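Late entry, S-adenosylmethionine complex.
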Amino acid sequence: MKELAITIVKKFLIFIEKQKAKQEFKHKQISSIEFQLKNDYLKEVRPYSSINFYQSYPPLRIRGARPTLSRFQIYDLEKHLKSDINILDIGGNTGFFSLFVSSKVNSIDVLEIEEPFARIGKKLARYEKIENVQFINKDFKKFNPSKKYDLIFSFAVHGHTKMKFKDYIEKVFSLLSKDGKVLIESHPIMFTANENLLKEELERLDFVKIISSGKLDDDGRLRTFFYITRK
Ligand SMILES: C[S@@+](CC[C@H](N)C(=O)[O-])C[C@H]1O[C@@H](n2cnc3c(N)ncnc32)[C@H](O)[C@@H]1O
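Prediction complete; structure with ligand written out below:
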């Protein structure tokens, strides 16, 4: 009964959001590509998402629950990017964050378990003529590439994989190049109770070295992030 009520409310909210997007497009408040992507997105609202995109895409002023530009700046990401590095973005969602970063690096593989998200990202990449971002529709647990990555984004995703934290970090590290780094961000699903919990979990692992850390609350939830590498 409760599930039915939630489904009905969600369908109603999606209907309202579709009407809103239609009006915004009609009044030229949003572009044709944002309108198309929004419609694609609303066709299948996923478990991890609300009716809004999770990430914004600043070059086209596409709005999202989490602002890509401020995340990019708060992570101090520019400092860690080089034109010859290869990045993996685990649980990259629609990839708007990675598409934004793409011009500053050699390549980015966006790994995303939900096919509709990957499809939306591919569509935006085609529209933006971005050729160095590849969307891989796969579960991280089943992802075993031969390629190694210089930088891995693990933003608000480790809890969703349902892997033990140690196993998750071990697997992430196995995908790193020799001096590779991981940028890992906490998320409420695992670390609501205590903002220091991710730090404590990382410190418990004797093969992890914390390079630097920070905090952000771009969507009203306090999160911590860490640049880590192998000890
Ligand atoms: C909370 S969202 C975070 C999105 C993005 N990392 C960010 O922070 O902007 C979690 C994302 O991870 C994806 N995801 C969940 N489990 C996954 C798995 N096992 N393998 C790959 N992606 C997964 C979800 O579909 C969703 O897009």
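The pocket of S-adenosylmethionine is lined by residues 48, 54-55, 66, 91-93, 97, 111-114, 117, 139-141, 155-157, 160-161 (CB under 6 Å). Will revisit in the morning.
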